[in-house]
Hints:
Blueprint: E1 2-11, E2 14-16, E3 20-21, E4 25-29, H1 37-46, H2 56-59, H3 65-68, E5 78-85, H4 88-98, E6 107-113, E7 118-122, E8 130-132, H5 133-148, H6 157-171, E9 180-182, H7 183-194, H8 207-224, H9 234-243, E10 247-250, E11 260-261, H10 262-270, H11 276-291, H12 296-302, H13 314-343, E12 351-358, E13 361-368, E14 375-376, H14 382-397, E15 406-409, H15 418-431, E16 437-441, E17 455-460, E18 466-469, H16 481-486, H17 488-502, E19 507-511, H18 514-529, E20 539-543, H19 550-557, E21 566-569, H20 573-584, E22 594-596, H21 614-624, H22 631-634, H23 641-651, H24 660-672, H25 675-680, H26 683-698
Parallel strand pairs: 4-16, 4-17, 10-15, 15-16, 19-20, 19-21, 21-22
Antiparallel strand pairs: 1-2, 1-3, 1-5, 5-6, 6-7, 8-9, 11-13, 12-13, 13-14, 17-18
Helix pairs in contact: 4-9, 5-6, 5-8, 7-8, 11-14, 18-24, 21-24
Amino acid sequence: MKLIKYRVTKFRSVQDSGWIDLEMVNALLGENESGKTNLLLPLWKLNPASGGEIDLLSDVPRSEYSELRTLPDDKKPIFITAIFECNDYEMTEIAKLAFCDKTWIKTIQYQRRYDGQYFISFLDAKPENYCESKIIIDLISGCINKLDGIKAKKTDKKIKKNLIKKMNEIKNHPALKEAGIDNKKIDGIINTIKQFDLTEASETGGFIEIYEKCLAEIEKIKTDISKVHPNYYQEAVKKAQSLLPTFIYYSNYGNLDSEIYLPHVIQNLSREKLGEKEASKARTLKVLFEFVKLSPKEILELGVDFQSNERPTEEQIQERANKKKERGILLESASTSFTRTFANWWRQGSYNFRFAVDGDHFRIWVSDSIRSEPIELENRSSGLQWFFSFFLVLLNEKYDEHYGSILLLDEPGINLHPMAQKDLFVFFEGLSKDNQLIYTTHSPFLIDPDKLDQAKAVYIGQDGYSYVSSDLRVHESLTIDSEQKAIYPVHSAIGLTFSEVLLFGCNIMLVEGPSDQFYLNIIKNILIHKGLINPKRELLFIPAAGAKGIKTTARILSHGEDSYPNVLLDSDRQGRQIFQNLCDDLYSGREHKVHQINSFVKIDDAEVEDFCDPGLLAETISRLYRTATDFSDEFDNKRPIVPQIESFCGKNGIYLTPGWKIDFAKSVSRKMQTEKYIEGVKRELLEQWKALFSAWFETMK
């Protein structure tokens, strides 16, 4: 299963997160205390691989705790809703138990209430309990026509006449006067047809065959509209429950950052109630000892020495020596195995691990290719301790019974060097081949500027609750400092990426936001594919997180007076103002590098959306937001499309999320990438697109 979106409600600092759309790798960005963790924990508690118990005292919003704790279980609120997309195997297995078409099982919604109760719904199942009356009428009319066409024998003429009369009576049945007819009324019609007496009809006359076929087809219609919703098949629901992926949650609390005192470990592993930090560390220790295939108690027992007052026999001494030898061999074997496995993932140096026991202490010694002398893990870097501990948990819980789990990582690699953080991001991409991954961060090194659709901004609203947005340029209209801080890592990541790509001589054009980047990247690829442009160097469209960020980003990118990047601005009021400011100040004398979209599209107040195929944009809106009126019928391609979309949705009661333009751009971009679309692009549109790139190329001469 793939988690495609989820929603958190009434959980700690989150009142209602709204729907959070997901890719295979997902980053939640935000400053400290913005509520990022509170968007991971509810998912973990949906189906935890281990731990993850619901705790009303900790999980319910404090302002509502006194009210919610007294509610009966069936009145307690749902705190997590997640929608999954099934693969073909999962659809088939559940459909067998629900006696339905497997397409009904494509998406499944899982919810969990504060009392632990689950609610599972098959969202694509649409069983109907009625059909159009016209279908029955047309079926009966067809039978009448066939009966009319039979040349009856003398003995069958009366039967033919009566049968046609009865069929006409049914055709005019009161139940068929309504537009739709339900299965109960169809059952009445079936019973009426069954009362026809054809005992005297000849078997070769054709009447019986027409009658039986008519009856069979009506009975089939009744069967088709009498299907039970899969939600009512308990075995299907149980199967869906069993297929729900587990969630593995890991935070820095689980790091093994101190020596491991075995008596304490034995005590903590047997305790049911531990604080969050202690529980996380106990979990990591449990995994560690499972890896070495020894329990802490066994490790102690295998190494017990004789008391000073004991007088052991030679046989007892040998037995005790054999136990210590066995323990040493087991630890050495585990050390070799872990070192080999760890090396497959960690790229920041070559490390050797050795597990050893010193009295009541279990120690992990680490050496590397540069420092050959072993040093205790607790004295190595915090970054190595984090990766070691996280890797242990992942190694244990990702495989075996938790294969295909969804990984939830809270501030991963916060103590890693920036280059190691970049390696960690590559590590995440590798994990995502088998496991979806959601992580929180405020580090620019854990964000890929080429995949900003993976990032969501988390911030605190004016009401004190946490909110999520996929619009990374939302800060243009912000009054809350938290929102600007949430997307700061994106600014930083873009700046860092620019520094790298400039070394390779790429040509850059700054645009206002990620949605512009989506459109223009696809347009560039189409023009190259068609042979209409032939750039000698890579062309990059870099979002500056809003028009106001253009000036700052341009300064970061420049490495000399003549190296300022090209800029493309919308032609709305703010775009015109920024255009003038840039030409008067930073781009004075190089105004030819600042472009406005209405230079290429003859529409007042045009935005980059208006530079695209208007028909495709209107068609996409009609598909995304289905209403009684079709957006394509109202769309005026001589006016900017964005205000028209906002007006259309406002009139039809459709709420547009803050990041709707990005989601819309993704949908349009996917269509533009298809071979069918690329081959059918109109010539005038290609010339319009080419004009922008020609103006850009002129500035490079």
